[in-house]
Amino acid sequence: MTRLNAQIVPVTIFAQNCCILFDEDDKLGVVVDPGGDVDRIVEAVEATGVSIEAIWLTHGHIDHAGGAMDLKERLGVPILGPHKADAPLLAALTEQAKMFQVTGAVRNCTPDRFLEEGETVSFGSHIFEILHTPGHAPGHVVFFHREARFLHAGDVLFSGSIGRTDLPGGDHAALIASIKEKVLPLGDDVGFLCGHGPGGRLGDERRTNPFLV
Length: 213
Description:
With 213 residues, the protein is α+β, with helices and mostly antiparallel strands. The chain has one domain (4-208): 4-Layer Sandwich (Metallo-beta-lactamase, Chain A). It is built from 7 helices and 13 strands. The protein has helices at residues 38-48, 62-65, 68-75, 87-90, 93-99, 172-183, 202-208, and strands spanning 4-11, 16-23, 28-32, 51-56, 79-80, 120-123, 126-132, 141-145, 150-152, 157-158, 161-162, 191-193, 200-201. The strands form 3 sheets. A 6-stranded mixed beta sheet has the order 6-7-8-9-12-13. Strands 1-2-3-4-5 form a 5-stranded mixed beta sheet, covered by helices on one side. Strand 10 (157-158) and strand 11 form a beta hairpin.
């Protein structure tokens, strides 16, 4: 396996971790969750020298998908994900912008392909498994690289916390089930990045996360 790397690009007033996942050797990669500040994302992509193959979305909230259509046009790449259950959220991003009083370019998003659990997505030699993890949003998905023992958890799990469930479509019981039945069983050794704040290891969250113990 060639070397997997990640660069976080903080975007929007929500301090969302837009993530460039890429191969250190062949410089192929993807952008995960471009919530906004598209100029900043493009500058980061150019600085890394990475050739972006696709945009991946974990879910349909504005801070993760608000810049997806603009970035698609800038880079000329498809948008993959999330699960089709988030189609209503993606079709109402401009309404979310009004609700959160977000100014600037926000466009409703139509992915080129929704993702289902059991599918895989990839760039270069890196293959990521799709898990459908509802609770924070109905169509939330996470991306798991089994060989690298790496998870992009979106807003399902944070270091010492979990995703909020008070937004439309949120379901606390479903989120806890997603974490305990799908995410934590991936293994204590799995490292993760998330949509806000620092990442961590699943074993630490299983042992110490106050929402899970």
